[in-house]
Amino acid sequence: MNSTSARGPRQRSQICATLTRPRRRGITGKATRPSPPGGEAPALLRLLPRRRGRVHLDRLWLRWRGPLGLVELMRVVAVDRAIDVLPNVRGVEGAALRFLSQEAVFGVKPQLQRGEGAEFEALRDYAPGFDTRFIDWKHSARHRRLLCKEFRIERNHQLVLAFDTGYLMREPIAGMPRLDHAINAGLLLAWISLKGGDLVGAFGFDAAVRQYLAPQRGTAGFARLRQAAAELDYRSEETNFTLGLAELDARLKRRALVVLFTEFVDTVTAELLIESIGRVARRHLVLFITLRDPLLQRTADRAPERFADVAEAVIAHDLLRERSIVFERLERLGVHCFDVPSRGLSVALVNRYLMVKERGLL
Q1: Whole-angstrom Cα distance, residue 116 to residue 126?
Q2: Which phi and psi (to 5°) does residue 170 adopt?
Q3: What DSSP letter does each residue of 263-330 carry, written as one string?
């Protein structure tokens, strides 16, 4: 914007720029810059995102005030753009390297992880304590000593990160929505899985299916998953587990590890949830992930001082008991359940993934 000055001593005027958004989102942007008389004033408008997701920018308001404060001009510039605020993954690589410490010290190299897999690795002499089921009797007779088979942990497994984006996942825990805790833990698991040679995909749903990325291999796919996580929005609809999990089951053509990040409250929702997960668990291995609410546990354990405290403690205890019943029913279906604090989510999830790989459960 050009600015002019009246005759006499030249004074500097100011240009103020402000962005507006049609949807409220945790992002702010405002800039004020002096404008030289008779020239142009380039200004840098910095945006500070406060939350992950897609931000829609509507208009840019420019306001110029004269040097004497007697004249003010305003112009509105249509922007109509969307910016994806990516999840903060600064700690992902550091946490992943702690799990893959050999790779961090000795450089990138193939690691042959032995376990109870199905890929044959080598023969070794039998020692007391070894599982007798793995004795190779044919080679033992040929070499005239007992030999056991060693197996290598399989690769090329499919892993799908399924995110519930319903209204319950908007609830904040430790200053951040449940959905963001789930995305951070899921991205860490995706990085480790991709480094280990597995295929990783993503799935988002609530009242309808919002997103599906077919599992792909290679660490280059991590940027694709991160972009997909940025596009997951916070929804106010109730989650339809029957529709969402049935759609996911239909899209997966082979056995996969389904990591479901979700939340439930009432028993009616839990019944539909258990029924839907039971159908998925017939073909796939399911990890059921929920975040433990510290307020609920504190309310149940707090020493009562008033009658209202007793009533709140009873209600909190009933809710915790119903949650434990749901977890027990899911575990009978072969589902691996986690109800952990937000700080321990990433470590517990990665450790269970490594245990699944080591035991060859896929």
Answers
A1: 16
A2: -85, -10
A3: ---SHHHHHHHHHHHHHHHTTSEEEEEEE--HHHHHHHHSPP-SHHHHHHHHHHHHHHHHHHHHHHHH
pLDDT at 7: 44
pTM: 0.71
> 90-108+155-359, what's its fold?
Rossmann fold (3.40.50)
Mean pLDDT to the nearest integer, 124-145: 79
User: What integer pLDDT is reported at residue 101 of this predicted model?
Assistant: 52
- What dihedral do alpha carbons 188, 249, 281, 288 form, nearest 10°? 30
The residue among 228, 262, 231 whose CA lies nearest residue 244 is: 262
User: What residue spans define the domains of the chain?
Assistant: 13-85, 90-108+155-359, 118-152
Return the structure tokens found at 264: 């439930």
Q: Residue 21 and residue 24: Cα distance in Å, rounded? A: 7
Helix crossing, 345-359 with 178-195: angle to 10°?
40
Which residue shows structure tokens 């002499």? 125
Q: Token pair of 28, please?
A: 């702010």
Joined together, the tokens standing for residue 299 give 């309310």
**Residues paired with 306 in a beta bridge:** none
Residues whose CB falls within 8 Å of the CB of residue 178, separated by 6 or more in sequence, listed in order: 168, 169, 170, 171, 172, 261, 263, 291
**Residue 203 near residue 211 (C-beta atoms within 8 A):** yes
pLDDT of residue 43: 65
* Residue whose tokens read 């007697």: 70
